Every structure is written in structure tokens, then in C-alpha cells.
Amino acid sequence: MNISLPRLDLHQIFCDVDDFYRAFEAACSQTPQLPTLDRAKPYRSRLSLSEVMTIVIAFHGSGFRTFKDFYTCQVLHGRNAFPNLVSYNRFVELMPWSIMTLACFLQTTFGAMTGISFIDSTAIAVCHPNRAKQHKLFKEQAGWGKSSVKWYFGFKLHLIINDQGELLAATLTPGNTDDRKPVPEMAKQLWGKLFGDKGYVSKALFQQLYEQGLQLVAKCRKKMTNRLMSLMDKILLRKRAVIESVNDQLKNICQIEHSRHRSEFNFLANLLGGLIAYSYYPTKPALDLTPKELAALPPAII
Fold first, then answer.
1. Angle at 59 between CA 243 and CA 162, to 5 degrees
2. pLDDT tens for residues 253-273?
3. Distance of CA 259 to CAs 66, 78, 146, 169, 253, Å?
4. 145-180: string of b/e by CB count within 10 Å (b at 16+)?
5. Are the C-beta atoms of residues 126 and 135 closer than 8 Å to each other?
6. Distance between CA 236 and CA 226 in Å, rounded?
7. What is the C-alpha separation between 120 and 242, in angstroms, rounded?
8. DSSP for 179-246?
9. Using the 8-state DSSP alphabet, how is residue 46 labeled?
10. Angle of CA points 47, 61, 252, to nearest 5°
11. Is 300 exposed, middle or buried, given 0-12, 13-18 or 19+ CB atoms closer than 10 A?
12. Rounded to an integer, what distance in angstroms lies between the CA atom of residue 73 and that of residue 80?
């Protein structure tokens, strides 16, 4: 079955990444650095770090299921785009060097705040549940969590998006972390209203966010007393499924989740690459909130 994937403009991605890396490198050279070990080796390769970042991002928009197939079947056959390519094994060794720059570059791809935000978490399993006891790579970092479908062993990816489907914040925690714990830190720069599911119901969290200038709107649990809510909030709360569509694209198109990781650093590099690749997709799940539709609601309700 052929699945049509949105094509990413790799030339645009490389230009953005290369410009950012040059500015990032210049800023780092002018600021005091943390002390390092004498035996720490600098980055040395004929393949520039911006090219490494571009290839990592490109994989998550290619449709290939494994990075090895993508690199050997597509990247190595396109030496005109990357004339200084290295072997697959050498490239895997270079990927950890890009983590810090990818994490910083991700911040530049976040969308604009519109006053309407949605929050949710999604499971990032690192192995099959039956192999969790034998799993060694993330034994100390991962944890058991429960999604709406099943139990899993791995991490939670917490996301905040705007009404246009653009990422505003992202945080990775162990699978046994409460969904409400990372919210205050993630929502520091947000304003307006934040919509979430029943897992974010908390008086303390509501008060903390309200003091930051953000109103948390969440569905009531079964045993909770119904409270008054404006019609606009009810409509937007029903539209919260847009962030679940974003999670679906991140997993099925950007492929941020798989159980073949052999390195913690490459796991982070692939996760960051998938989030950045999503930001370059020309079409994203979004709400069609036009001024004409909002004007149809009574002013007192808005």
C-alpha cells in the first residue's frame, strides 16, 4: 500500500539549520564554557554538524521505517547533495554530537502563541511489555505507564500546541510521571487558555497557572460536581482531539517511537529530529477558527 507523505523542503531545512548552527557556534565561542576533561575529543569529521542534523531531520519525513535503509538506499545514493558523506556506521557515531544543537534548534521551530493552547501526553514505549524485565538500555531512566489502551514501559512525551497545530512546548519524562507535574514549567510563557483532558484536573495546578496568567480548562471527572462553563470553552474543549491528531502524526509519520534503540543519545537525536520534521510539514491538524465564526457567538459568551 502506498502512503502519500508530505514532502519536506530539504534545501530550506539545511539553510535554516546551517544558519542556526553558525550563529550557535559563534555565540558559544564568546561565552564561558563549562570545564571539560582533557581527554574530551572535539567534533572531527569531513561531514559538517549541520549536515548531520539535516539528515537526521530528513529521515523523519522520508517514509522509511529504519534509519539504516534510509541512509544506505537514499542518502548514499544522493552524494550530489552531501559530497562529504561518511559510512553508515560512522554516521551513527556522529549522531550524538547533534543532540545539543537539535534541542536548541527545536526551540526556534515552535509556533506563535494565539491564546488558545491544548496539552496532552503520549506514550513512548522503548520495548515490548513482555521484554521490560530484560531491557537494559533505559532500565534506570524509563518507567511503567498506562495509556488509554494498555500498559507500556518507556517514557511520556508531553506536548502543548496552539489552535493551528504548531508545537509550543515539549518535555520528556518517565512513563510513571503524573501528567500534571511538568505543566507549570512548560506553560511559563503561555497566556490565554489551556485545554486538557481529565488527567489535568487539579485545584493547585489551576491556581498556579492562573497566577501565571493562564486559565486551565479541563473536563470534569465522573464524581465531580458540574461547574458553569462558557459556550466558547465547551466548544474548544470538544476540539481538544486536535492534539491527539498531532500525536498520531508524530508516531505514524515522523516515527518518533520504535523499540530498536541501541544508544540513549541516538534515541534523543531521533526524537528531536522527529519533532523538528513535524514543524516543517506544510499541513498540520488545525482548527478553523475564523473571525466570522467567532463573531457569530454572543459577545457575553466570548
1. 20
2. 888 987 677 888 989 999 999
3. 11, 28, 17, 24, 16
4. beeeeeebbbbbbbbbbbbebbbbbbbbbbbebebb
5. yes
6. 17
7. 10
8. TTTTHHHHTTT--EEEEE-GGG--HHHHHHHHHTTEEEEEPPPTTSPP----HHHHHHHHTTHHHHHH
9. S
10. 135
11. exposed
12. 14
Collapsing DSSP to helix, strand or coil, 161 comes out as strand
Q: Which residue has the cell 502524526?
A: 249
Domains of the chain: 10-107 (no CATH), 112-259 (3.30.420)
pTM: 0.87
The closest of 233, 118, 139 to 186, measured between CA atoms, is 118
Provide the pLDDT confidence category of residue 123 given band limits of 50, 70 and 90: very high
Q: For 218, phi and psi rounded to 5 degrees? A: -135, 155
Residue 239 cell numbers, joined: 476540539
